[in-house]
Amino acid sequence: MNDVNNCENGFEAVFRNSKDGLAIFKDEVFIDCNASMLTLVGVDNRDDFIGKTPFDFSPARQHDGTLSVTKGLALVARCHQEGSVRFEWIIKRFNGDALWVEIILTKMTMDGEEVIYASWRDISESKAIELALKEQKNTFETLFNESQDGLSLLIDHKFIDCNKALLDMFGYSSKEEILGLTPMDLSPEYQADGRRSVDVVADNAKQVAGYGNKMLEWQHQRADGSLFWTEIIVIEIKLNGGPAIYAITRDISEKKALQEKIISRNEALKETNRSLSETIESLKLAQSKLVESEKMASLGSLVAGVAHEINTPVGIGLTGITQLMEECRDIQTRYEQGNLTENDFEDYLNSASELAGMIKKNIDRTAQLVRSFKQVAVDQTSEEDREVNLNQYLDEIFYSLSSVLRKAKVVVATECRNDINVVTNPGLLSQVVTNLIMNSVNHGFKDRDSGNIYIGISEHENNMFMMQYRDDGRGINKENLSRIFDPFFTTNRSHGGTGLGLNITYNIITNALGGSITCNSEENKGVEFIIKFKVKARLD
């Protein structure tokens, strides 16, 4: 009897002092509880707990959506049948807060009546962690399954899971077709660079083991045998305590096709550029030859003009000499026959003096023409600098062009100081002035009876001079004005124009003479060129 009393006293002590919430209910009504139970449900007085049912401390529905009353009664009935049952439950504290508890219901007999002994333990913290982990797991599974990239898990180089995107990428309809396969089963024997796929995988596996991850481009093989390019990110992870591989696979076939297209186009562009460079070099060579031809043509025109100009004084001189020789023979015959009178001799002396004067004058003119032609011709074919007086050199140029100017009835007026002595390449200046004058004669004064040209040269700054060239010819229309310095541009091609005269002039001034040239003109209002050019030195 004492043992029974001691046992009951021991049970009472454990019941009252347990940290778990303990209670006894009969016919689903609480008849006893300990202090921990009151704390757990947030009740201060025992009387507020006794007489209540477990459902008074439960929300209307449990976590799975089942009514608390329905689910609770089923668990109590199971306890009566099995003797004990353990489960997790959401309770509602007195203040309305929800709390996760683990409940153990045990059937027992007390005072000859069957009752339920209930143990409630607060598991809210561990349950929160569990739910958070479950939420993370659900989130990961959602991301894994719904990702547009192909995702897979591998253990011992074999697929143990994959998502739908990977199945679609490789042309499979179910996971069972892929699970258990290795990456080699989804790859051709050789990669695009000629290496065996198995050797490349072995090399990459070492890198993954060393660094924990690896990104690479890989050529895969679909279920139908077709090849396609992928970008793979391989990550080493822990799964269920062991090593595993998490792989992200992305189809980059379009990207690779675009890259190959770009490479192909770049090669084609390089070839086009090489061909274009060769064409440009050929054009430069052709242009150089044309420029040289233009110079020779200009020189040829100069030669023709000078030859025509020389014909007149040479012809007059030849006539004078012929007449002088005849008079000499006549006076000699009279002398030998003894018929020479004093008047005859005086007439001879006067005639001989006039003829000699006329011959000398024409020979001097011929010599001047030859000297001018020689100097201008040498300058136009020479690249050497020499000392010149700008005013005098302009006169030499005009003298060499006198036949052309006279034939076109062109009057040239100049304005240049007599003391401007410089060191420069006079042939370049001669080419510029000649081209401008011939341009005026051939274009500006075409179909006109006469014309006027003005050329003025003045000092500008620091060995820089300015030349102003004007004519009163036909001028240039607005559409053509911006193109006059372009190579091969001419409005006179049908009459032999090459379109290189002003282009050569532009290049000489801007490149060789380090200056600039601009043109102002309106149709039927003549033309004006403003030219700035440098000389090597200005001499005092």
TrEMBL record:
NCBIfam families per UniProt: sensory_box (TIGR00229)
Keyword set includes DNA damage: no
Domain Histidine kinase as annotated: residue spans: 305-537
Domain (PAC): residue spans on this chain: 214-264
Family matches, as PANTHER family: PTHR43065:SF47, SENSOR HISTIDINE KINASE
Designated name of the protein: histidine kinase
Domain of life of the source: Bacteria
Known catalytic reactions: ATP + protein L-histidine = ADP + protein N-phospho-L-histidine
GO MF assignments: phosphorelay sensor kinase activity
Pfam families assigned to the protein according to its UniProt record, in alphabetical order: HATPase_c (PF02518), PAS_9 (PF13426)
SMART domains the UniProt entry points to: HATPase_c (SM00387), PAS (SM00091)
InterPro entries referenced in this protein's UniProt entry, alphabetically: HATPase_C_sf, HATPase_dom, His_kinase_dom, HisK_dim/P_dom, PAS, PAS-assoc_C, PAS-like_dom_sf, Sig_transdc_His_kin-like_C
CDD domains: HisKA, PAS
This protein's UniProt keywords: Phosphoprotein
